[in-house]
Amino acid sequence: MISFSKRLFLSCASIALAISLSGIAKAQGPKIEEGFDYRVMPVPQPVETKGKVEVIEFFWYGCPHCYDFEPELKAWLKRQPKDVSFRKVPVAFRDDFMPHSQLFYALEAIGKGDALNDKVMYAMHKENKRLMTENEIADWVASQGVDRNTFLAAYRSFAVISKARAARQMADAYRIDGVPTIVMQGRYVTSPSIAGTKAKSIVAMDFLEEKIRKNNYKQ
149: closest CA among 162, 138, 159, 160? Predict the structure, then answer.
């Protein structure tokens, strides 16, 4: 017969094991599956930097889902190591959205992208600013303390217009049909709509990040 003390020990050990396994399962998070939580592009696109995990967010200033996803994306970026390379690419699904892509690259050109990108989205989604024309855009940028003429010179420049057009071509090459969309290593595609929720898409990004590292950053 097993003594009471031994039964108590075995019982405690079983509970401890159950808690331990539960903790492992929790740490591992939900299962991530190809075709459900992310897709693999049939033709991988070239990455800009070798030896890094390349992450691209295709977005549009006027997209409410992009605005809604921004806090989770920023939190994810804050905990990434130096081998993660991130950039945003504006998408213009229609010709009348091209001014927003020019706005993005013009702010980048004058060194105001980091300071004003969030404010652009806040203005559009919380203050009902449309910012669809050059004058509307320039007036708003000037209201943020930026010299209007300096901004317009960048906005109208060949370099900025070329980048906006290239971004549109890039979105076509990546077959982007909705935003926000995250593409990792020019190959793996996920988003809140693909994964089902914002939280699940972040878990998918973590999964893909480790997958890319284990594959030595290859595509």
Answer: 138
